[in-house]
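Researcher: Go.
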Amino acid sequence: MKRILLIKITSLGDMVHTLPLVSDLRRAYPDAAIDWVADASCADIPRWAIGVDRVIAPPLRQFKKNGKKWKDLRGILRAVRELRREKYDVVVDVHGVYKSAIVARLARSPRRFGYAAEFLGEAKAEFAYTDIFGPHGDATCREKMRLVTANALGYTYPAAETNALRIPAPATPLNTDGVPRAMLFHATSAEIKKWPQAHWIAVGQSLAARGFRVQLPWGSEKEHEESRALAAAIPDAEVLPRMSITEVAQRLDAAALVVGMDTGFVHLADALGKPTVMIFTATSCGHFGVQKPGQSVSIGDQGKPPSVEAVLAAIDSVAPRLPGQVGQAGPSGPLHQAAGNVSA
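Model: Structure:
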């Protein structure tokens, strides 16, 4: 195997879910070139992934969002030319919609793997594949990709997931005052996924009492207003400025604790080996959750939001001990190089 094309186009959380597959492929084929096609809006994480040689990043979302402007179309055409510059031994589409299937079909390869129609986000995308992945049962979103690809290509993979990332260093060191930061990702992509504002205040106040400085990121004006309202009720809380994906990742890597909803950045925190608590209210905890004893835990489930007490107990199970803090504590020290995770 000399060259492999991996297709996972969106979104941020799915980029993170795909990282263990990259590590598996690199372990199985140490000398192969591995290329990844991802939308330009999500391409930072593939670029940070250790083991990926080339990222092809068409601006598909931008093309749609900006009214299909010519400059965005030129970007897509450049990406197509870049895609077709190489010939691949195999194409692995672990996304399974029309746009990923079209990418697979455009690639120069005799073998194109994808899911069977009943497992695709858009069933007719099956037209692009020469080979169909085998069954995957009730495997989690990350395990499913690892399982079907390994079975298709004929290699074995370890039980433990490896997320190998190299985050760019910030221009100025973060959190140099010695106060540990706890980032609270309260915002979600849909109202149904939210956890009550009063619950976030209770958790934030508890973390402040434990010696953490709470940091509140946001991505829209509505989320900005919500962050300001939380900060007004949480002692010494900090509303962060609007940030790029890279800047958020740098903040995550500098944090001592991350608590948040089932969102891409919270998944990234777990991939970086940070003490992480992920809250579920409207999606499947069993399918999307993170569980690494002493490092990350997921609580709640679809239609079963957790209580404040459950979240605080989860924090106790993963949070590092602070000076003068009494009670149960998880691991301490720099956790961004925890077992199964690599970052620098």
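Model: The domain at 3-164 is CATH 3.40.50.2000 (Rossmann fold).
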